[in-house]
Amino acid sequence: MIDLLPHADPGRPLRLLCIGAHSDDIEIGCGGSLLTWLASGRALEVTWMVLTAGGTREREREARRSATALLRRTAGSDIALASFRDGFLPSQYEDVKAFFESVRRRCDPDIVLTHRLEDRHQDHRLASELTWNTWRNHLVLEYEIMKYEGDLGHPNVFVPLAHAVAERKKAHLMRHFGTQHAKGWFVPENFDALARLRGLECRAPSGLAEAFHARKLRLTLQAV
After folding, report:
1. Which residues have a Cβ under 8 Å from the Cβ of 104 and sit 6 or more positions away?
2. Considering the entire predicted model, what is its pTM?
3. H or E segment and range at residue 200
4. Contact 50, 20 (CB under 8 A)
5. Which H/E stretch holds residue 81?
6. What is the pLDDT of residues 27-42, one digit of tens each?
7. Domains observed in the chain
8. What pairs with residue 39 in β-bridges?
């Protein structure tokens, strides 16, 4: 496997933009990668967007508490929670796009983490479409969410996870998203299964990884 190391301009933190349609999407899709970045000691500034966090008061509390817990060791964070109707994002297109534009005016990220374009959940798909529409000149990594529809694809970017990080991710999800415990798929064994599959595919030393889809990468070959 070939390793690529994301970098930022010298003297400032790496800026990340994390976008999720629902309160737990970011944590499921790239929570392990964020924990790995933070454990490395790398300075990060994170903008955290959730589109349907305010659907219920409890889901909004979950979203804010989870983000606050994950981002407490960052150099800076901006948590932007919206209250669009869960499951109906395409019908609210104009307002959702305006929300994206409002975040764009205060966020110029080095890396954008968002949903996969081919995701069959309509909310996930629109979030990804608007990501590409809003941040066209940025490195976008699309994370994956397992679900009944079986729409997992063939990712081409992998982040190996240490065993301790994978355990922290699972514990975080179970601790902060109690409203999801009644759903049959929201169990630690499923998160572990996908991490093991992606770890196998990238020969991760621990056997565990998160995976992403990258549609455009620019390689800078001269010294910087």
Report:
1. 134, 135
2. 0.95
3. helix 188-202
4. yes
5. strand 76-81
6. 999 999 999 999 998 8
7. 14-213 (3.40.50.10320)
8. none
